[in-house]
């Protein structure tokens, strides 16, 4: 086998796929890239799989002689990344793969592609369209649950309508919901495992328009140079609309974008440098929100100007990390809602974040050891 291909194209594809490759596995071939060079088509196919998620990508190349092999994924990526030159030449015999670019050459052992597990990516009968994959992931992934006893909460739920995609995630303490406009061409409701959604978001760009569809319990995404398949979570997701439209939910205040940014910077700074952070304290007063945060390393109190709509009295506490995540996700001018029990909602035109309140708790400051006088 001998093929010449663009090094930068090959490198970009390898980087977009390597996260799927298992770090360890009893099947050695799964820890590598399966590369197939089709002489008749002039196309290189690269496949990776962890048996739950599979990606296959293709691109054009100059192929003198076709062939296939499996090469250790992270080693191959490292070599291609370090090589210079515009093109790279791959030459494969039965045991070794020659990798040449400019005046540098590597010879590395490879495995037979015949032993790579047979991967069947089923092509769906009916296809819809979706875009904004990266945004959908970044705005919901922080709220995905980790409790294996509640598998439906371990993924990102997609609700597809004719002109809208809504993504949501919930871990029973907080919920993140976002939507984008897209001419989808149909309806679907499906939950994708968080890790699989992460792989997909790293394989595409936000602007990419993908086709996708279901075949049994497999969800397949299709683009001109990519096939991506993953299992779905079959357990039903929670009723998002019921949580978003609680009967006692009312608009409390409106906060400007610059003031939200100040809050985000303060809370993030304190939570990121501290071993332990007490719940954030919120107090609503006339056209003012008092935010207090205390950690083992620092403490701060902010008086944030707001436009009061419905006054609510009392002190409300929220997990500091979850509150920080909310401030990072909900940007711009924000509407703040609250229920009588203190469940907090922050929303902008495209996203909403729900956060349940917690109990008051103090941080345990480290006691400073004093030196005994001589």
Could you write a compact summary of the structure shown?
This protein has 374 residues and is an alpha+beta fold. Helix content is 18%, strand content 40%. The chain has 3 domains: 2-115, DNA Polymerase III, Chain A, domain 2 (Roll); 128-239, Roll (DNA Polymerase III, Chain A, domain 2); 246-355, Roll (DNA Polymerase III, Chain A, domain 2).
**Can you tell me the CATH superfamily of the largest domain?**
DNA Polymerase III, subunit A, domain 2
Return residue spans where pLDDT drops below 50 for at least 5 consecutive residues: none
The tally of domains stands at 3
Measured by DSSP, the beta-strand proportion falls in 35-45%
How many β-strands, per DSSP? 26
Radius of gyration from CA coordinates = 26 Å
> Fraction of residues in helices?
10-25%
CATH class of the largest domain: Alpha Beta
**Shape annotation:** elongated
| Alpha carbon gap, first and last residue | 79 Å
Counted by DSSP, the helix tally is: 7
The chain-level mean pLDDT equals 93
Structural class assignment: alpha+beta
CATH architecture of the largest domain: Roll
CATH T-level fold name of the largest domain: DNA Polymerase III, Chain A, domain 2
Main sheet: strand order: 14-11-12-13-26-25-24-18-22
Main beta sheet: strand number and arrangement?
9 strands, antiparallel
